[in-house]
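Hypothesis: this fold can be encoded by more than one sequence.
Test: take the structure tokens below, design a sequence, compare later.
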């Protein structure tokens, strides 16, 4: 098959796949084989205009649905997703590379938000104060914003959009999803599922593309809010540009998550969790553990245990029948970038305990594989320590005390997730209080909050003040009106009074 015969992954406008007007495309790879499997449309202004029109029609139809009817569509979507999630998992693996069971895990975490959203009437019902003043009632209404934009990263092509769109739709908004151009197909599968669930056409619109599509959404007056997840420099750009254009914005950025291991911790548990959280999804998770802070004297023993476990990891095609533990990275360019961070660490004096550079898998020589890598004594001045690597590279930094470890975590740019491993409840409690990070695990390595709490980091891991999902999600996707009402009753009518209303 030549490149020209490959399918073009389209937009989704008015409830159907819509070819692009732009003629611009980008290749979409299967990262395990390195082969181009399709091309994705990259929007230009005509596509952006069409997406806005589609979402406008969708909003008019969907916002007129009663709460009960909206709820039945959400329940139908949940049932369809639950029954057919295996199809979605295979699509994710084919374009992202993560193993199928991990793709199923990503869907399960997204489905949690769908299930939360099914109970939305309780969360958008507002409040009522009877007789706030004589004969005056005050109440609040929570109304949808209108058209909302969701811009997602490559690493969770289903879960991250699902952090936002179930709640946005439950609240009566129309969504435009701009997926990552690296793995765009999951969004179209989800769009088709919404159609089958009974969502009016246009209420779930997909705009494929790159910076041009993103900028189109950031500058469109019709778009009321932006929910972004991706790297920190882009998150900051999105936050600044969308805010300047008067939009509500939540922009989640990158991470550098530390695991603090106290000397009393169970080192077998720690080694298991460090390997799971460091190398799962090939380290391409914003909540991956990338630094183990070992409070001495545990480092040598812990490194031995982690090394033993790394030796047993199976790396390969995530879609293979005999499922490996870890798949490839997303692209050749990203693999080379990850590799360059190991070079930097080495040049800066780190000790390479396990080297994943140049890793190949038999029969998949063109795949974007990178082996699990363990670094010891990584200098905290090295860019390999300060910057996000986003690959299967676990760095050990040795510290002498809890305070030294805590100070390192708090001195970093990011504040997404962290974990402490200890059997000392007092130390754990102190840590949760003192650490400057948004999501904390106590003997839990990847503390992604459940759907009814909210997801979001501190510092350069989240721009804006609204986290994803939970109550924050419902606040973000609704706009409140406060109504002060008096039904005229001649006895309560105060006559003319130019003073400021008081109780
Ligand atoms: P990315 O920032 O490169 O891309 C994210 C989105 O922004 C994509 O849809 C992309 O098309 C768009 N984009 C890219 N460059 C742009 C530009 N110059 N202008 C406008 N839009 C642009 O991120 P990625 O590589 O897809 O994802 C990995 C990053 O996402 C990592 O940094 C990871 O930590 C982060 N992430 C964070 C969280 C979180 O919850 N904080 C969750 C998942 C991923």
């Amino acid at each position: 098959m030549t490149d020209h015969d490959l399918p073009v992954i389209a937009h989704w406008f008015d409830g159907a796949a819509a070819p692009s007007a732009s003629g611009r495309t980008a290749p979409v790879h299967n990262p395990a084989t390195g082969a181009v499997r399709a091309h994705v449309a990259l929007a230009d202004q005509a596509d952006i205009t069409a997406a806005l029109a589609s979402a406008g029609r969708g909003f008019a139809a969907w916002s007129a649905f009663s709460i009960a009817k909206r709820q039945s569509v959400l329940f139908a979507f949940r049932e369809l997703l639950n029954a057919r999630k295996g199809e979605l998992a295979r699509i994710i693996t084919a374009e992202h590379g993560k193993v199928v069971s991990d793709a199923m895990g990503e869907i399960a975490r997204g489905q949690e938000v769908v299930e939360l959203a099914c109970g939305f009437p309780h969360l958008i019902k507002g409040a009522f104060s009877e007789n706030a003043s004589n004969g005056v009632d005050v109440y609040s209404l929570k109304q949808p914003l209108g058209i909302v934009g969701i811009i997602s990263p490559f690493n969770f092509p289903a879960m991250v959009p699902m952090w936002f769109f179930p709640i946005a739709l439950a609240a009566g908004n129309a969504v435009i999803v701009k997926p990552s151009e690296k793995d765009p197909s999951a969004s179209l599968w989800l769009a088709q599922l919404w159609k089958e669930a009974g969502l009016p056409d246009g209420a779930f619109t997909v705009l494929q593309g790159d910076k041009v599509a993103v900028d189109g959404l950031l500058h469109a007056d019709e778009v009321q809010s932006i929910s972004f997840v991706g790297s920190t420099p882009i998150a900051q750009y999105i936050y600044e540009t969308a805010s300047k254009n008067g939009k509500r914005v939540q922009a989640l950025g990158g991470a550098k998550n530390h695991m603090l291991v106290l000397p009393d911790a169970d080192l077998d548990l720690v080694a298991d969790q460090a390997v799971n959280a460091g190398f799962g999804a090939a380290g391409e998770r914003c909540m991956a553990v990338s630094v183990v802070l070992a409070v001495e004297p545990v480092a040598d023993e812990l490194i031995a245990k982690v090394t033993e476990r790394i030796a047993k990891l199976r790396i390969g095609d995530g879609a293979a029948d005999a499922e490996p533990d870890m798949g490839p990275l997303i692209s050749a360019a990203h693999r080379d970038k990850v590799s360059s961070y190991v070079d930097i660490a080495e040049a800066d004096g780190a000790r390479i305990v396990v080297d994943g550079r140049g890793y190949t898998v038999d029969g998949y020589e063109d795949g974007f594989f990178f082996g699990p890598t363990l670094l010891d004594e990584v200098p905290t001045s090295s860019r390999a320590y300060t910057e996000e690597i986003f690959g299967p590279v676990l760095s050990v930094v040795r510290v002498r005390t809890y305070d030294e470890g805590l100070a390192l975590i708090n001195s970093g740019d990011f504040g997404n997730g962290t974990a402490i491993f200890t059997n000392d409840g007092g130390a754990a409690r102190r840590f949760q209080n003192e650490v400057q990070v948004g999501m904390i695990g106590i003997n839990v390595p990847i503390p992604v909050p459940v759907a009814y709490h909210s997801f979001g980091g501190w510092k350069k891991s989240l721009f804006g003040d609204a986290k994803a999902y939970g109550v924050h999600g419902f606040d973000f996707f609704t706009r409140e009106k406060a109504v002060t009402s008096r039904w005229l009753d001649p006895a309560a009518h105060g006559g003319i009074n130019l003073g400021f209303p008081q109780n």
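DSSP finds 15 helices and 23 strands in the chain. The longest strand covers residues 136-144.
Hypothesis status: open.
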